[in-house]
Inverse folding.
């Protein structure tokens, strides 16, 4: 080799970035968030697009978008025609891979199925959620991740149980009407007719809330107003749910009362209680379940940096929401985490406590919230360019 001949420098390996963000509610799905972040990273990477290797794993915590996240991770999307929250037929999706199904109750019984501005806090039913679960069983599922959240209902899962074969009868010997309000008329309950396949199926109740069924932290008191319940409705619904649990206690024994106070019983208008008492479900924080189902651990092994996020990073984020779960898992493996969001309502200290090094809110680029929502995609790409300049140098 000639004295002044130079040996080519070894090219640096690209930075491996894992995008594991939830949806920006009202503007972008989790899949779209990942697409826009990836585009911004590639434009903003100091070494050019080849200096970054992006892997996208859209995540969800059991609420809206859970089925979409599963499909993005390789599950097959299936659809079924079921009963909507107001009794009308709706098309609902679930996800299937082998004998594992991901069922999102909001697909059948969610607020998304109500006409704009219309709520039915006393009458909305979870009957369609039971039909959707039955469709998953019919498709061969023997493990069901039942994601609950975004519901229009406060019926304690009574409709769901009825769809799966339970008999909930009033004093006249007739089935009780739909919705939580009708549970005041419940006289007897018989769960012996529930679909026998449930006994051989592992059902995981995946939720980001751990409220009990009744009381000041219960389904009606905490979440009823979000579904249009007045204060009088809340009192009525809380009493109806307590009566429902008392009737079930006569039917199945003391465990009914125990489950009413169990974490997750109050999730999605009490559908968690119905799942615990009738389906033999086991409660787990939704984001933990979904990270397992989506294959987050092996993806994390391949990452140098994780980007998470959701529409609003606030105090609720710290209590079981997707970004907190992603950050906790990444921190345990020593992988740095940064976040993108629509708005930021956490201090740097709170972010650090959650394992997030820095957050990039869209409001830092566009202070008008309405424009942030309308132009979320392009703004998110600009935020990702800034992130790339800061963390991929």
């Amino acid at each position: 080799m000639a004295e002044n001949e130079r040996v080519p420098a070894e090219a640096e390996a690209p930075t491996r970035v894992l995008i594991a963000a939830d949806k920006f509610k009202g503007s972008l799905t989790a899949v779209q968030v990942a697409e826009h972040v990836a585009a911004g990273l590639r434009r903003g990477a100091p070494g050019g697009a080849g200096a970054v290797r992006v892997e996208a794993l859209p995540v969800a915590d059991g609420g809206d978008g859970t089925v979409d996240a599963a499909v993005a991770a390789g599950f097959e999307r299936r659809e079924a025609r079921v009963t909507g929250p107001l009794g009308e037929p709706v098309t609902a999706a679930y996800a299937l891979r082998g004998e594992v199904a991901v069922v999102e109750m909001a697909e059948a019984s969610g607020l998304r199925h109500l006409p704009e501005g219309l709520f039915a806090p006393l009458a909305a039913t979870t009957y369609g959620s039971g039909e959707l679960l039955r469709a998953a069983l019919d498709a061969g599922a023997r493990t069901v991740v039942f994601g609950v959240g975004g519901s229009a209902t406060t019926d304690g899962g009574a409709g769901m149980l009825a769809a799966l074969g339970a008999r909930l009868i009033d004093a006249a010997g007739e089935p009780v009407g739909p919705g939580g309000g009708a549970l005041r008329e419940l006289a007897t309950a018989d769960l012996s007719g529930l679909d026998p396949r449930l006994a051989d199926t592992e059902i995981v109740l995946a939720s980001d809330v751990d409220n009990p069924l009744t009381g000041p932290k219960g389904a009606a008191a905490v979440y009823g107003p979000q579904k249009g319940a007045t204060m009088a409705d809340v009192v009525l619904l809380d009493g109806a749910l307590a009566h429902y649990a008392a009737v079930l206690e006569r039917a199945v024994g003391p465990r009914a009362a125990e489950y009413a106070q169990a974490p997750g019983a109050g999730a999605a208008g009490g559908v968690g209680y119905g799942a615990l008492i009738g389906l033999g479900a086991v409660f787990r924080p939704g984001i933990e379940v979904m990270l397992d189902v989506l294959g987050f651990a092996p993806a994390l092994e391949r990452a140098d940096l994780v980007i998470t996020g959701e529409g609003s990073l606030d105090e609720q984020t710290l209590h079981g929401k997707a970004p907190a779960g992603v950050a906790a898992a990444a921190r345990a493996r020593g992988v740095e985490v940064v976040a993108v969001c629509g708005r930021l309502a956490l201090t740097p200290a709170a972010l650090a406590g959650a394992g997030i090094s820095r957050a990039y809110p869209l409001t830092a680029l566009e202070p008008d919230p309405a424009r942030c929502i309308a132009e979320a995609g392009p703004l998110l790409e600009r935020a990702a360019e800034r992130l790339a300049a800061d963390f991929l140098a």
